[in-house]
Design a protein that fits this description.
500 residues, alpha+beta, FAD/NAD(P)-binding domain, D-Amino Acid Oxidase, Chain A, domain 2, ten-stranded mixed β-sheet, 14 helices, 20 strands, 30% helix, 24% strand, binds flavin-adenine dinucleotide
């Protein structure tokens, strides 16, 4: 890489991706790296709502609600292909009294400057026949991502690349050194696919590593007034009944709400919100999460959903900011969900704490202001990393899915897709929409996955086999908390390879 960069951004979740695009548009020379795929952290496991934070009114977080409603409405207006207004149906069942609900909804609508449809009480609605003991509901207009959260992140990344940013997935920042570097920082990058190691120099660093923000700051020897606590959020997907076409928001036994979201061929139900001290533990869904989700869901549905109906699980860890010296919180609901930023007093380094998909515009603008306090852009793109060709997207079909999906060869050539996991989980929703991560029950689609692996690896059978095998092991591990019936059988017979 020639000469020092302006900014290295560590972490390509929604925060890093939105910051990257914003800085690249200002003329900064930016490198964005992620140790995994783009959007492979928390940003692939959300409920995919772009909302104004109605629930935060409970804690009187008025500034957060004002900022989120503004960002929501801008995203709807400026990114119609990715974010669309959607009616949510809140069906109260033992939650707050009616007067509280209606006052909160009225205040929320006013705080959103009346840009969305006015909340409406409905005595009759189509979903009622399928819900147990459903009384009147409230229609609230929010917004939702059209394809997925991971693709939303990718869109920001590719837009940044078109502006000249250098964007690299599967590249981990291993070591960070401030001493002796006139440029500001020297970072050691490890390509996690090839193992090759390179150094880069940058005038400034933005730490957007989500749950790993504190660990990255430790590597740089930096401290901050903030730290993260972790809350595990698990959702489950099951085949979508024909009647389920709108987002339903339903009360939970713990005094919170959960969402039943229509998402292609599945209904997505969740999420849990459980504080965990240990990040590794927070990232692993537990049997108790699945049991709780089914218990909560079946309280509301007339036709119950069984464990064997579950197509997939989504598990994400919310990085929630607290003051560094704060005592361990007892409930996640008591914690602010407003992002916090810290510009180091002496070093050119910004750390991001918290942040939501819904608030990515505001967060990116705030980070841009902090960066501008220390360094100015040195000129306009193009930088030495020209954007890829803008060819029209090529689509294909996948068994059992009605909607077309981007082809693996196209995703590999144009979207930095390097593996089956990248393709099935984040370039498409196949891993979440088809049982057993896309293998299908009893490995019925193993042959299709083999063909996809060959496309991604340009016909290299050795690489394709290794990828398929690794992906299969990963699916078994991810689905371990589901019933054995949902796990893929070893597809050795189907595709004729040797399996250990
Ligand atoms: C269950 C659940 C539901 C949610 N629902 C919503 C919702 O409906 N709407 C909403 O707005 N928000 C929602 N959120 C919140 C939102 O998803 C997260 O706050 C957001 O995705 C966090 O993004 P991030 O960029 O901070 O973190 P991440 O997406 O985790 O990105 C951080 C990245 O840093 C990378 N990284 C870490 N260390 C290194 C290193 N050393 N080198 C290189 N890369 C590194 C990681 O690989 C990771 O990809 C939800 C969250 C959860 C868990």
């Amino acid at each position: 890489m020639d000469g020092p960069l302006d900014v290295v951004i560590i972490g390509a979740g929604i925060n890093g991706a939105a910051v990257c695009q914003t800085l690249a548009a200002q003329g900064y020379r930016v490198l964005l790296v992620d140790q995994g795929d783009f959007g492979s952290g928390t940003s692939q496991a959300s409920t995919m709502l772009i909302w104004g934070g109605l629930l935060y009114l409970k804690n009187l977080e008025l500034a957060t609600v004002l900022a989120l409603t503004r960002d929501r409405d801008r995203l709807v207006a400026e990114r119609p292909g990715s974010v669309q207004a959607r009616p949510l149906l809140y069906v109260p069942s033992g939650g707050p009294p009616r007067v509280v609900v209606e006052s909160a909804l009225a205040a929320y609508w006013v705080m959103g400057a009346g840009k969305r449809a006015r909340p409406q009480r409905l005595d009759r609605y189509a979903e009622q026949a399928h819900l147990a003991a459903a009384g009147p509901a409230y229609a609230i207009e929010e917004a939702a991502l059209v394809t997925s959260d991971a693709r939303f992140v990718l869109e920001w990344v590719l837009a940044a690349e078109r502006l000249g940013a250098d964007v690299r997935n599967h590249v981990r920042v291993d070591a960070i050194d401030a001493g002796g570097s006139a440029a500001g920082w020297r970072l050691q990058l490890c390509d996690t696919l090839t193992g090759s190691v390179t150094d880069v120099q940058a005038r400034m660093v933005v730490n957007a590593a989500g749950c790993w923000t504190d660990a990255v700051n430790d590597k740089a020897g930096l401290t901050s007034p903030w730290r993260h606590v972790f809350s595990r959020g698990v959702s489950l997907a099951f085949p979508r009944p024909a009647w389920h076409t709108r987002h339903l928001v339903l009360d939970s036994l713990e005094g919170d709400v959960m969402t039943l979201a229509p998402w292609g061929p599945v209904s997505l139900w969740g999420s849990t919100d459980t504080l965990r001290d240990d990040l590794a533990e927070a990232r692993r869904p537990a049997d108790a999460d699945v049991a709780r989700l089914l218990r909560e869901l079946n309280r509301h549905l007339r036709v119950p959903v069984d464990r064997s109906d579950v197509v997939s699980l989504r598990t994400g860890v919310r990085p929630v900011p607290v003051r560094h010296d704060a005592r361990a919180p007892r409930t996640p609901a008591s914690l602010t969900r407003h992002h916090r930023l810290h510009l180091d007093a002496t070093r050119p380094w910004v750390s991001i704490y918290g942040g939501k998909l819904s608030g990515c515009l505001g967060l990116a603008a705030d980070v841009r202001e902090l960066v501008a306090q220390r360094i100015s852009p040195r000129g306009a793109a193009p930088w030495p990393h020209p954007p890829r060709d803008e060819a029209p997207q090529v689509t294909t079909t996948f068994p059992t899915l009605e909607a077309p999906v981007v082809s693996a060869a196209w995703a590999a050539a144009h979207e930095h897709c390097t593996s089956l996991d990248d393709y099935l989980r984040r370039r498409t929703n196949i891993a979440q929409w088809v049982p057993c991560g896309g293998f299908g029950a009893r490995g019925v689609h193993a042959g299709t996955l083999e063909r996809i692996a060959l496309e991604i690896h340009d016909g290299d059978t050795g690489l394709a086999e290794r990828d398929l095998r690794a992906y299969w092991h990963q699916v078994c591990e991810t689905d371990a908390v589901l019933a054995q019936a949902r796990r893929p059988d070893t597809p050795a017979d189907t595709i004729g390879w040797r399996w250990s």
